[in-house]
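Problem 12. The chain below contains 176 residues. Write out its predicted structure in C-alpha cell notation.
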Amino acid sequence: MKIKLFTLVILLFLIVKIQAQSEFTAIKAGHVYSISIPDYMIKMVDLNDVATYQFGSEVKNGYGFVIEDSKEELLMYELKYENVTEFYDGFIKDFLVDLPKRKVSSTKTFSTEGVSYLQSEASYYDEEAEDTYYYYITIVETKTHFYKVVCWTNADNKDKLKDDLFKIGSSVKEIE
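Solution.
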C-alpha cells in the first residue's frame, strides 16, 4: 500500500513538473505605429469609435484621430488600393458629403523613407453652431497599412493650428 501511494505521489509530481516546464514563444501581435502630437494636446476618447488613437486640446479647440487599415484585411473585403491617392479617393467621396457648404481642397502628395503621404483640407458650415469647421486630412501608406489622420478645428483657430495639424499627420510612422 505504501509503495502504491508513493508511486502515485511521484507520478503526480512528475505530471505537475512536466506541465510547469512548458516552453513559451514570444509572438508579435497587433500593429504598432508612432505619431507626434504637440505638447498642448492630450490623449482623448470618444472622438471616433474605430480610431486607434485620439487626441486634442479643448483649450485650443483642436482635435484629431487615427484610423488604421491593414492592407491584408482590406484584401479580405476585396478592396485593393494601388496607391495613397486611390485610398484617399475612396475615403473623401463620402467624407462630410451631406453637410452644407462642403468644400474639399486639392491634394498634396510626398514621400519620405518609403512612406507615402497625401494631405488635403475639407470644410463645412455648421448651421447649429453658426461656425465653419476645417479638417486637415492626411492619408499615410506604408508597406502594410493605410492610415487616415483626421484633424479639425473651427474658423477662429484655422490659421493658428493648420501647420500643427498637418505636421501631426506627416509624423505617422510604423514601428518594426
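Discussion. Residues 2-20 form the longest helix (19 residues). Students who got a different answer should revisit the alignment rule from Section 12.3.
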